[in-house]
Design brief:
Distance between the termini: 25 Å
CATH architecture: Up-down Bundle
Strand content: under 5%
Structural class: mainly alpha
Shape: globular
CATH class: Mainly Alpha
Largest sheet: none
Radius of gyration: 21 Å
Number of strands: 0
Oligomer: single chain
Number of helices: 20
Order of helices and strands: HHHHHHHHHHHHHHHHHHHH
Number of domains: 1
Helix content: over 70%
CATH topology: Growth Hormone, Chain: A
């Protein structure tokens, strides 16, 4: 056989291997984020039950959601530094083991204080997973497929919410609230085996590896102005998503008097919309750019507010919620690609996750703020005012922000980059 056909065979085999490794990396990030979201939104469906279980008010249970959100930057900083210094695979396996164990232990909580402490610890694991998974996934796919991969990765959050709704509908009545945490923890414990067996280390990280943790921190300080912008953007993104999701089941039950069964069924429906929105707008961002596509996606939640907050029937509310989450998660489907492209090469493990979770920290009072507005304005107007103001502010911030659509994650056009972009 001549050298030329032999090279073609080798290149073909290499391309197939690259496609396979990219798919496994993306799947690992997706599954980790779905498991995180399953646990977080499991609690959303248990506010009433846990208030009775622990003899506290519903606002006390809502506070455990805030505690989880507030602790997420700690995990993002810790695991982000580990990821940029020592690689993506090890920290990803470690963070999944950590949050799975804490989730499992939540099912054994016998007091409110114990439950609150466990939810705060869970926030560390939840905060660490997204940045590690996003950097690994975005570095493992061709640049021209980054938008689709971004939408797929972020849709794991909606799938986790959908699974939590299914569990609330079928598992909760049959097995009780503790079993929901046990199932989530047990499922998460399997993911590290998949990462260990099938997910290779990122080649982009190998090329851009920082020499020390101090070098990573110094590079972050040099990019402080960019970081401030990204934190502002992510804070508004968090207001948008958590303001439309976290208290909506409670709103349906208390303000619209919809049964728990019907609420879980509606949650299934609007999370289908969320998955579709994330995938569609993620792919559209490859054609029209990240910023313009985010702004286009924001139109959907804005026009859906009347049906979403003031609908007088289940079908009207469901239609509004479907469009709301299609638009909200449509904007979020672009975030993994947008953040990783705006991050310096040596900080791609730290910056996306850290600014993401700092946004969570600053937006952590979302549920408390909406609850306070509810007492003054009523539930419908509280949700409306909060989301409308957030959408307008976010559109302004995105309009005047930077973009590096299609940025290469490799230092130079070597064989590995050519191999990836050829897929």
């Amino acid at each position: 056989m001549s050298a030329e056909p032999l090279n073609e065979v080798k290149n073909s085999a290499s391309s197939r291997a690259s496609r396979g490794s990219g798919w496994h990396a993306m799947s690992a990030g997706y599954l980790g984020w779905a498991l995180d979201a399953f646990d977080f939104f499991t609690l959303v469906f248990l506010v009433d039950i846990l208030a009775v279980q622990f003899h506290v008010s519903k606002s006390d249970i809502v506070w455990t959601l805030t505690a989880t959100l507030a602790m997420r930057p700690v995990g993002a900083l810790l695991f982000g530094l580990l990821t940029d210094r020592y690689g993506r695979r090890g920290p990803l396996m470690g963070v999944v083991i950590f949050f799975s164990l804490i989730e499992f232990l939540c099912g054994f909580a016998n007091s409110y204080s114990m439950f609150l402490a466990l939810r705060a610890l869970y926030g560390i694991g939840m905060g660490g997973e997204w940045g590690v998974g996003a950097s690994l996934a975005m570095e493992s796919v061709p640049a021209r497929r980054r938008g689709l991969a971004s939408g797929f990765l972020q849709s794991g959050y909606s799938v986790g919410y959908l699974l939590a709704a299914l569990a609330a509908r079928f598992l909760l009545p049959a097995a009780g609230w503790r079993f929901m945490f046990w199932v989530g923890g047990a499922a998460g414990a399997l993911l590290p085996f998949y990462v260990w067996a099938r997910v290779p280390e990122s080649e982009a990280w190998k090329q851009n590896r920082a020499p020390s943790t101090g070098a990573i921190l110094r590079a972050a300080f040099r990019n402080s102005k960019s970081l401030l912008y990204l934190v502002l953007m992510m804070t508004l993104m968090m207001f948008l998503s958590h303001g439309s999701q976290d208290l909506y089941p409670d709103f349906l039950k208390t303000a619209r008097h919809i049964t728990s069964r019907a609420v879980s069924e509606m949650a299934m429906l609007y999370n289908v919309g969320a998955v579709l929105g994330s995938m569609v707008f993620g792919q559209l961002s490859e054609m029209f750019g990240r910023r313009r596509t985010i702004m286009a996606a924001l139109v959907l939640p804005l026009i859906s507010i009347p049906a979403w907050a003031f609908g007088g029937s289940w079908p009207m509310l469901a239609a509004g919620a479907f469009l709301m989450q299609a638009g909200v998660q449509g904007t979020w489907g672009i975030v993994p690609a947008h953040l990783t492209e705006l991050s310096p090469d040596a900080l791609r493990g730290l910056i996306p996750g850290f600014v993401y979770q700092l946004g969570i920290l600053f937006a952590s009072p979302t549920n408390t703020m909406e609850y306070a507005l509810r007492d003054r304005l009523g539930y419908s107007w509280a949700l409306t005012c909060f989301e409308a103001v957030t959408i307008v502010l976010l559109a302004i911030v995105i309009l005047f922000g930077p973009e590096q659509h299609g940025k290469s994650f490799f230092r130079e056009s070597g064989a590995q980059e050519k191999e990836l972009t050829a897929n």
